[in-house]
Amino acid sequence: AKQQCRNSYRFFEQAMNADVQLQMQLQQDLRQAIDNNELMLYYQPKFKATDGSMSGLEALIRWQSAKHGFITPDRFLPLAESSGLIVLIGNWVINEACRQMKVWSLQGHRDCSVAVNLSALQLQHTSLVDVVAATLKKHELSPSQLVLEVTESTAMHDAETSLKVLNNLSALGVAISIDDFGTGYSSLLYLKQLPANELKIDRGFITELEQGNDDEAIVQAIIALGKTLGMRIVAEGVETSEQQMLLTRLGCDILQGYLLGKPTPASASPLSNTALTS
Ligand code: C2E
Ligand code: CA
Ligand code: CA
Ligand code: CA
């Protein structure tokens, strides 16, 4: 039995080393990913609950690695964050999303906005404000066509700097959205201070919404809170028409989820297929 134990420990150790090596390899390759054009953005549409019209899209990063294949953000964003690479990658995302939104805007979609997710580390750099301002200028994109999504915990991380950066971003005229709302630890006092225009109810409250549990009451309370603070309410992860109907009835402004549209490359987005002529 002792021998077996030792063998399984050795096996465990080898597996650990292999994993650490893979993580290190991934991190190294991620460094090249921007230059190798391996990063791309998918776009998931958001719709107005009341009339079903499209209000905007959320940019979601993908890594199509020549070496490792298709890698989801859950796997490489933690590496990008721990290595600090997220700042470079994040700047690439902002530029690419604005460039694409300008293309759609010129095709007539001037009422649509693009949402970009921000990491905690990006909000620690006051230079983010200059990056966003310069990128909007470069693409001649209206600030009203850009939404920046931050999670509560993202904004809580060194709250003082984050708050300053968010206030300066807000002053540029871009919208600030609080993502994954209800999962973080922010106090209501802090929430009140955030210059947020939009609140996204976390998917965790939506998944079992129609099953008659506490989720409906929680969602109702979040909507009331958000509206009291003057925010637009978005529900993410809408997968069934029951959820769609209930959320609309509860007063959600915007809906997003697989039921209404999955993330796709820009070329397959509903916006690319409905060029307006105006
Ligand atoms: P998130 O911002 O909360 O984005 C929503 C995630 O849920 C996306 O996963 C999306 O594909 C997925 N989703 C959308 N609708 C549904 C639905 O109806 N059902 C289910 N089960 N899932 C749905 P994805 O694209 O894998 O992104 C995961 C997370 O990675 C994002 O969560 C966001 O936190 C982060 N992320 C993605 N792109 C970026 C980026 O460019 N920068 C940063 N900093 N983070 C990003
Ligand atoms: Ca998001
Ligand atoms: Ca979210
Ligand atoms: Ca999330």
TrEMBL record:
Residues 23-277 form the EAL domain. It comes from the Bacteria. Coiled coil: none annotated. This is EAL domain-containing protein. It comes from Oceanisphaera pacifica.
